[in-house]
Amino acid sequence: PLFTVISQGASHGAGDFSYVGIDAILEQMRRKAMKQGFELNIMIVGQSGLGKSTLMNTLFKSKVSRKSVVSTPEERIPKTIEIKSISHDIEEKGVRMKLTVIDTPGFGDHINNENCWQPIMKFINDQYEQYLQEEININRKKRIPDSRVHCCMYFIPPTGHCLRPLDVEFMSRLSKVVNIVPVIAKADTLTLEERDFFKQTIREGLRANGIDVYPQKEFDEDADDRMINDKIREMIPFAVVGSDQEYQVNGKRLLGRKTKWGTIEVENIAHCEFAYLRDLLIRTHMQTIKDITSSIHYEVYRVRRLNETNAQQNGQPPNTLVNPQQANGVAAQHQVLTHEM
């Protein structure tokens, strides 16, 4: 009841003559956010057999992947890349979240994988376009449904060698329009030495090809941010193991993979880096990932599209930016834009 809320606020500052109550805005924001709930849209990309569905189920401790929900008599490799999404309402301790998992079956599974990134790029841009059209409506909705892809988890096969041309091509193109988080799939197939060498080689490959994966250094807001994100950047790509099977280990029930020589514990950081990935995506950086999607990636798309529209109306050639610096300058405005969310 309103009276209870007001009386609680009044009693909080009782006896403190200098207390104004500005800090109460945090509780107001918390209540509003709890009422509205949250949205998170994650895309998973990688060739079949890398455990994408299993890892998503492990991350959210629910059957959230497409394969877990849609049963097919036989798993066939599609002739072209299909984009399939499925949404779930998840609730934990009173916090509601609409999670959408976007799967890309067929990616990297063919003899000729040239341009296999194009349908994925088109899908991401289509979501931006859909949001833009809702935004520029005269009678727009009070809360625009957000189908924009907040994060793309890219699964790298555990070859132990280096990034393949397919990996480089995909990440170099898509990192410009979406937050990419690369992971080494099924990392339990590598020894610790092989894993460390592979991670280092991948980091060098990303730097050599100018691929900026999440968290992007240019979007760090302050020194504290940079210090936290530098530690994450040193760990990328995350070497992960997924499992939705529980086993008894030393009297405790744990998620893991049982082998002849022992059990690989998914959430044990001595065994794999799943816990670090989960913390990044859910516990520490989820809002930042969404903010960068909205204030950087979507903003660049929005500026480009509106400039194209203006150019056409003014009789200039189509696809010509009226002011190209406007789009390029969006990233520099990140700090201001983020706080408008």
UniProtKB/TrEMBL annotation:
Main localisation: cytoplasm
InterPro entries the record matches: G_SEPTIN_dom (IPR030379), P-loop_NTPase (IPR027417), Septin (IPR016491)
Record's GO cellular component terms: cytoskeleton
Keywords for this protein: Cell cycle, Cell division, Cytoplasm, Cytoskeleton, GTP-binding, Nucleotide-binding
Keyword Transferase: no
Membership in a protein family: Belongs to the TRAFAC class TrmE-Era-EngA-EngB-Septin-like GTPase superfamily. Septin GTPase family.
Protein name stated in the entry: Septin 9
Organism: Hucho hucho
